[in-house]
Amino acid sequence: MSPKKIVERSLKKDLDIIAICDHNSAENAGAAIRSVKSDRLCVIPGMEICSREEVHILALFGELEQALVMQQHVYGHLPGQNEAKVFGYQIIADENDEVLGESSRLLIGATELGLQEIVTKARSLGGVTIASHVDRPAFGIIGKLGFIPDDLRIDGVEISYRIPLKTARDSIPGIKHFPCVTSSDAHSPDDIGRAWTSFLMAAPTVEEIRLALKGEKGRKVEI
């Protein structure tokens, strides 16, 4: 899952927009953005952040700098050190897939940040926040909390590739009134493009995604 290989596979799958959302980190998002040599693909910098409740939240940003500010906030509340032989090597690469270094942080772990803190901070940076794979008991907000708090200002919910969006909206309690998206949640190159969401938008930007999730100004999520 090197930056260059992710971009190459995404182009082969005819994807228009992808988001690089590593666990508790945005270290490789910039390399993926810089590796794009075609206007056929837009790469959005993001993170999949694990709250102290062990709920995963996707945060998508319009600019890499915003994602890196969020990363520093997360790093300041992320305890533990990685054991590479147990959890794997956490490589930091450049746009040519050359290894620049390795992260020693325990990226697989939960942060000390609560859900509200994560969503509030991401929104303050202009980010879009989406509750990850809400159909899964592990790390999904429904599985962990049993509900979505009324005051949690997320922009939408993500359904995993395992279940169609229409089925999920009718069968998962508490999500019917939220915009729903799906994605490949790829952890290997072969996973890329196994599921996707179609948006009606004017441009491939985070702000347009925000409008589509809200169903404003003619933008929408097509299900």
From TrEMBL:
Residues annotated as signal peptide: none
Pfam families for this protein: PHP_C
GO MF annotations in UniProt: 5'-3' DNA exonuclease activity; 5'-3' RNA exonuclease activity
InterPro entries per UniProt: PHP_domain, Pol/histidinol_Pase-like
This protein's name: Polymerase/histidinol phosphatase N-terminal domain-containing protein
